[in-house]
Automatic annotation (TrEMBL):
Transmembrane segments: none annotated. This is ATP-binding cassette domain-containing protein. PROSITE patterns: ABC_TRANSPORTER_1, ABC_TRANSPORTER_2. One of its GO terms (cellular component) is plasma membrane. Keywords: ATP-binding, Nucleotide-binding. It comes from the Bacteria. InterPro entries: AAA+_ATPase (IPR003593), ABC_transporter-like_ATP-bd (IPR003439), ABC_transporter-like_CS (IPR017871), ABC_transpr_LolD-like (IPR015854), P-loop_NTPase (IPR027417). GO terms for molecular function: ATP binding; ATP hydrolysis activity; transmembrane transporter activity. It holds the Pfam family ABC_tran. The keyword Cell cycle does not apply. Residues 4-222 form the ABC transporter domain.
Length: 223
């Protein structure tokens, strides 16, 4: 069962002489049980591909479809969660409120959202920071809040863009433990972009982005 399907997808930013092709003619599928690492150097197109898979970017050409999800971005939001690479917390909300947000936006009542938020913060090891504002957090702590927030919506597709990039080795491994355990518990697909070979090795499939082109191993080869 395919959750996301890309057919000859390309994404260009800018126009004319300033146009930059971030993704060239990508075709791929993410199955319901997938555990995928997308590797590649900085600027290779990993983040853009993840945003296309989430429906946050519209392809310049080609098609992206979600056979098992709703047709609108709002409907898909109940099934897809994204951990972004950069800071993405709302500064006026405390850590728990930020963690609850994904659950609240999918229609979960506040009491249940609080329970989910606290459980997710505990899972990533920062439940003691629940009342703090984002401005008081380190970059690594803020990233762990972002991971917790993604988990509270209980998605069927979890997309994480360099989720360990701002973390030390021990904390990064713990966050990957949390992501993998959550994907198993939820029966969700997990796609992680990373430049870290040790992180990539923990996922069953490794895809590679090179200069905006996707290389997916097929039966020992690449396509």
């Amino acid at each position: 069962m395919s959750l996301v399907r890309c057919v000859d997808v390309a994404r260009t930013f800018g126009q004319g002489d300033r146009a930059v092709v971030a993704v060239h003619g990508c075709s791929c599928e993410v199955a319901a049980s997938a555990r995928i690492a997308i590797t590649g150097s900085s600027g290779s197109g990993k983040s853009t591909l993840l945003h296309l898979l989430a429906g946050l970017e519209v392809p310049t050409s080609g098609t992206v479809s979600w056979p098992e999800f709703g047709t609108s971005l709002a409907e898909r939001g109940r099934d897809i969660a994204v951990v972004f690479q950069g800071p993405s917390l709302l500064p006026a909300l405390d850590v728990l409120e930020n963690a609850m947000m994904a659950a609240v936006l999918t229609g979960i009542d506040e009491a249940e959202a609080v329970v989910r938020g606290l459980a997710a913060l505990q899972a990533v090891g920062i439940s003691d920071l629940s009342n703090q504002l984002p401005e008081t957090l380190s970059g690594g702590q803020a990233q762990r809040v972002a991971v917790a927030r993604a988990l509270t919506s209980r998605p069927r597709l979890l997309l994480a863009d360099e989720p360990t990039g701002q973390l030390d080795g021990v904390t990064g491994r713990h966050v990957m433990d949390v992501l993998l355990a959550a994907a198993d518990e939820l029966g969700a697909a997990l796609v992680v972009s990373t430049h870290d070979p040790a992180i990539a090795a923990r996922l069953a499939e490794q895809w590679e982005m090179r200069d905006g082109r996707l290389f997916v191993p097929v039966r020992g080869g690449a396509a």
